[in-house]
Amino acid sequence: MAANIFFVGLMGAGKTTIGRIIAKHLNKAFYDSDHEIERRTGVSIPVIFELEKEDGFRKREAAVIEELSHMQDIVLATGGGAVLLPENRKHLMENGTVIYLRANVNELWHRTRNDKHRPLLQNDNPRQRLEHLFAQRDPLYREVASIIVDTGGQPVNAIVHQIEQKLLSL
Length: 170
Ligand SMILES: Nc1ncnc2c1ncn2[C@@H]1O[C@H](COP(=O)(O)OP(=O)(O)O)[C@@H](O)[C@H]1O
Ligand SMILES: O=C(O)C1=C[C@@H](OP(=O)(O)O)[C@@H](O)[C@H](O)C1
Ligand SMILES: [Mg+2]
Prior knowledge:
- This protein has a single domain (5-160), classed as P-loop containing nucleotide triphosphate hydrolases (Rossmann fold).
- It is 56% helix and 13% strand.
- It is built from seven helices and five strands, in the order E-H-E-H-H-E-H-E-H-H-E-H.
- Helix 2 (33-41) packs across helix 3 (45-69).
- The radius of gyration is 15 Å and the shape is globular.
- The two termini are 14 Å apart.
C-alpha cells in the first residue's frame, strides 16, 4: 500500500502547518505542492501568477500533483485549488488517504489576512473571495476526502491529535 496522506482544503485551513507535523510524527517525508513548484521554478507563487496567470500555475500544480501522488509513504499538503482539475482529484483519491481540513470563511480570513503570499486574496475584498471559493470548492473537497476535520476554534495540536486518532481507526 502507498500509505500516503494528502491534505486538501481552502487557503488558511492549515494544510502546510498540520501536514508537516503529521509527517514528522508518522515518520513520513513531507511535501508541499506549492513549495515544490517554487523549488522547481526558482520563483515564488506570486511571481508565477504574475508571469503565467492562474492557468500557468494550475498546469505546474497538476504536473507536481501527478508526480508526488505516485510516491510512497509521504504526507502532501496540496494548494487550496488542487481539487479544481478532475485529474488531480483522481490522482489524490487513488493514491492515498485524503484529509479535508475545514474552517469557516471568517476563520480562514483571519488566518490569511496579513499574508501577501496568496495572489487570489490580494484584492479589495478577500473575505468575499473566500466565500466564493468556499462555495465552489467545498463539494470538491468532500468528493475526494475520506476524513473531514473541522478545524474551527481548535489549536493546531488538538487537530493533529484528532487526525492521528482518525487515521488509527481507518
Ligand atoms: N487551527 C489553527 N488555528 C489557528 N491558526 C492556524 C490553525 N491552523 C493554521 N493556522 C495558521 O494559519 C495560517 C495558514 O496556515 P497554513 O498551514 O499555511 O494553511 P494552508 O496551507 O492550508 O493555506 C498560518 O499562519 C498558520 O499558523
Ligand atoms: O486556493 C488556491 O487556489 C491557492 C492556494 C495556495 O495554497 P494554500 O492553500 O496552501 O494557501 C496556492 O496554491 C495558490 O496561492 C493558490
Ligand atoms: Mg499551504
